Amino acid sequence: MDKILVIDDQADVRLAATVALQQLGLHCLEAEGPEHALELLKSEHISLILLDMNYKLDTTSGEEGLRFLKQLNQLGTTIPVIVMTAWASIDVAVKAMQLGAVDFVEKPWNNLRLTAVVQQQLKLKQSNHDNACLKALTSDTEAHYIAQSEIMQLLLAKAERAAKTDASILITGENGTGKSLLAHYIHQHSLRADKRYVSVNVGAIAPTLFESELFGHKKGSFTDAKEDRLGRFEIAEGGTLFLDEIATLSLELQSKMLRVLESKEFEVLGSSQTKTADVRIISATNSELATTIEQGEFRRDLLFRLNTIELHIPPLRDRKDDIAPLAEHLLLVHGKKYQRANMALSPDALNALKNYSWPGNIRELSHCIERAVIMSDNNNVQANDLILDQPSCEQTNSNAEQALPLLPLEELEKQMIQKALLQFNGNVIAAGEFLGLSKSAIYRRIDKHQLDLKEVER
């Protein structure tokens, strides 16, 4: 229910406004002056303010009302304000509008005029909020999870049971196994399926922008804040918020995340007003969080908030029965994308796919099929169209001692990234995917090792 704050030093005026607005099903709070109103704003979620412009200092200038509007601007609030003036002063009304007031009514008012203005502004506020949500990055597409192997059938059964609760879920698994797809699948089988599903890659957010991205900001709250922005928690209100790569969160930001998960409360950057978050949290990581906790890089209490239920997706090499149906599905998807709709996988191509180790999991399989669709000479994909020329897991393990020099871990990581960048002609994204690293992770490591991309491209 919308709450209307009526600010006037005359009790009979406040009562008259309250009675009129209660007929619309609105809940009214009363304040006898600006100071009292500012205190109420700290604890109450107000939808609209009715503001008298004149109080104890005088009865005509409107200075006290104008000062209150300036204070609201300093707080960064966007609550619509309708001003009330007993003298129908055009100058005061214009000054109030310049400071952010949305409309005005004259005292004594006509109840029809008052209720019409209030209803109009409440509808406009809701419309603005909805438009901002529509502009935000949300996903409404249906998630199809292809799983024929017994191990994946058991996992999906667990996921569907967990989906019916509001418990926080942590999804673990190697890069490319389909963690984000499983998160979307859980949302679609949850009691919140008719609400928004919002996905955010935590690892891709710069630490300085984290609060703004997650909690939103008010215009002017920092240098580049040129307009109000909704945060992901507010956009996902009533629905599901998926936090991918949660292990990349810095310790400082982990404390901020823990607070909102524990109390369901947060503040928009640049605002002192506390908001509540009614969202279901699903998070994902490819890291061993137990190890990062031991190393002091992740908070144990935050993990407890995230993993009420933990679901682990096995790598593709451990679910061979899923390779063929996944490959055929991806062939249809990429065939449609590149206008090659009648393609098929030959028996030798399917056999090659099943015998490959898939270090990049489903993501690598998708790239492999996409490449075959583009490069094959006919509609029947052969094994050589797949270009699976990398060694299998068994070959790699048997030659590991000979192929892998004994080097410090940091130096070994640097060399692997250099080799991957050379292999992919300086394509950072492709090199990262081959190494099982996200876009943000590969760039962080390039910066850490001070690698010169220009040298690689040569």
Automatic annotation (TrEMBL):
Pfam families: AAA_lid_14, HTH_8, Response_reg, Sigma54_activat. The modification 4-aspartylphosphate is found at D52. Residues 145-374 form the Sigma-54 factor interaction domain. This is Sigma-54 dependent transcriptional regulator. It comes from the Bacteria. Residues 3-122 form the Response regulatory domain. Keywords: ATP-binding, DNA-binding, Nucleotide-binding, Phosphoprotein, Transcription, Transcription regulation. PANTHER family: ALGINATE BIOSYNTHESIS TRANSCRIPTIONAL REGULATORY PROTEIN ALGB, TRANSCRIPTIONAL REGULATORY PROTEIN. Signal peptide: none annotated. The keyword Amino-acid biosynthesis does not apply.
